[in-house]
Design a protein that fits this description.
globular; alpha+beta; seven-stranded antiparallel β-sheet
Length: 455
């Protein structure tokens, strides 16, 4: 679970900004907190299960999601030797070019709490650290530092490993390129000397999931290859009133060479196929989804994703192309796999613009289903949204509502509703729309605008 995230000098974040899933003083909706019974009560760190982030367009909401995604990819995928570290620093402060970017996570993994972070410039990893912590103490796992002369060193607790493991640990550290994270290098070696390093890396690679508005068909191939998940997928499509009865992969009914992809791309997909493993390819031109698979006899099968609807006054089924479905239905097809994953395993999903192409009642139902079906489980749902209809203390806690706002210098600032003193019966939505909490576009005088345009 994500406990806290801090980022500095990245996109619209100049000074450090902090997003926290620590519960505040609110006492409502106790089931919105995950209580870690694996930890001793006096040292127990509870975590919120969901949060919503509001703000005007260009306030920095999406940049927070991009920061999480950038850090995840930098950790999981690493970077090639001698390649520059590409990131966008804060551009509206001349001093920012001289400052490193910083990313820090506090996370809960397998009943333990870890603080992991790193500082980077465009050439090297300047600092990297990992601690295990409780409410009352912290324990160093490792700290890696590169000084101004390019000399690097690493600290680790004494007596943490056997002598031969300690030597291998040092060997991995010395083999870590200056532009690469030690955590990444360590896990690429597929070793298990210090378990926290494996557990923390696995959290980033398999537990933290980020969805942007343009992401399509997330995890859909996986679900269509599992009969139980396929059934649940169709149940939710029906629940959200999409009009779809089934979703199926059907034979394309055309030669492979007529598919809407470059010939070279199709040849590469087929060349990389292995028996009983499928690949998925989306046509950006036709907005259609195709799967390529190979059977045990190495025969190639290509199928297209289609939806099925019941014809009125008939038992017959009509197949629709995906591009014939509404934008809202396609958005639900992107989000339902995430919801099913949250309902069936422990995961963290960060969704940018949850309400994109969705009716407000659908966004509300999406969150309610998550809340109801994941009680007592360490799953989390974190979303940015413009949907003010969700701002209701009957559904949310004050500490689950955040606002992003840009100041006159172009710096994004993040703050929680918990910072405001309000009554339990206060109309949060109305207060937000009236600008009491910030995070909304500034409305200028329309008469002044007329003068400027007609000028």
């Amino acid at each position: 679970m994500l406990i806290r995230f801090t980022v500095e000098n990245f996109l619209s974040f100049n000074g450090p900004i902090e997003f926290s899933m620590y519960p505040g003083r609110a006492t409502s909706h106790k089931n919105h907190k995950y209580i870690d019974i694996k930890q001793k009560k006096y040292n127990r760190i509870n975590v919120l299960k969901h949060s919503l982030i509001y703000g005007a367009n260009a306030s920095g909401k999406s940049n927070l999601v991009k920061a999480l995604d950038y850090a995840k990819k930098f950790i999981v995928k690493g970077i090639g030797k001698d390649k520059p570290i590409n990131f966008s620093e804060f551009k509206l402060d001349i001093k920012a070019k001289e400052k490193p970017a910083m990313f820090q996570f506090e996370i809960k993994v397998k009943g333990k709490n870890y603080s992991y972070g790193f500082k980077i410039n465009k050439e090297i990893v300047i600092e990297e650290w990992l601690y295990e912590f409780t409410k009352t103490s912290e324990k160093l796992i490792f700290k890696r530092i590169t000084n101004e002369d390019g000399e690097k060193s690493i600290q680790k607790p004494s007596k943490i490993m056997k002598n031969e493991d300690d030597m291998f640990f040092e060997f991995i550290f010395r083999g870590t390129n200056p532009n690469k994270l030690f955590l990444t290098e360590y896990n690429e070696k597929t070793i298990d000397i210090i378990k926290p390093l494996n557990d923390v890396y696995d959290w980033f690679s398999s537990k933290l999931n980020v969805i942007f508005p343009e992401d399509r068909f997330l995890g859909l191939l996986f679900f269509l290859q599992d009969i139980e998940f396929e059934k649940d997928f169709e149940v939710l499509l029906n629940y959200f009133d999409t009009g779809i009865d089934e979703i199926k992969l059907e034979d394309i009914g055309q030669p492979i060479e007529d598919l809407p992809f470059p010939k070279e791309l199709i040849e590469k997909i087929i060349a990389d196929l292995k028996p009983n493993v499928s690949a998925m390819l989306e046509s950006k031109r036709t907005n259609e989804l195709y799967t390529f698979s190979m059977d045990k006899d190495k025969n190639i099968e290509v199928r297209k994703l289609r939806t099925r609807h019941t014809i009125k006054d008939s038992d017959e089924i009509c197949s629709f192309e995906i591009n014939e479905e509404s934008d809202g239905t396609k958005r639900m097809m992107d989000l339902i796999p995430a919801l099913l994953m949250l309902l069936n395993e422990d995961a963290v999903f960060v969704i940018d613009e949850l309400d994109r192409s969705l009716h407000p009642s659908i966004s509300s139902q999406f969150i309610k289903i998550f809340s109801e079906f994941t009680k007592g489980r360490p799953s989390q749902l974190i979303c940015t949204t413009h949907d003010s209809n969700l701002l209701n203390l009957n559904n949310l806690r004050r500490d689950e509502i955040w606002f992003m706002e840009k100041n006159k210098y172009g710096e994004s600032n993040l703050y929680s509703l918990e910072e405001f003193k309000i009554r339990r019966d206060f109309d949060i939505r109305n207060g937000y729309l009236l600008g009491r909490f910030g995070g909304i576009p500034y409305e200028q005088n329309i008469d002044n605008l007329k003068e400027l345009i007609n000028g």
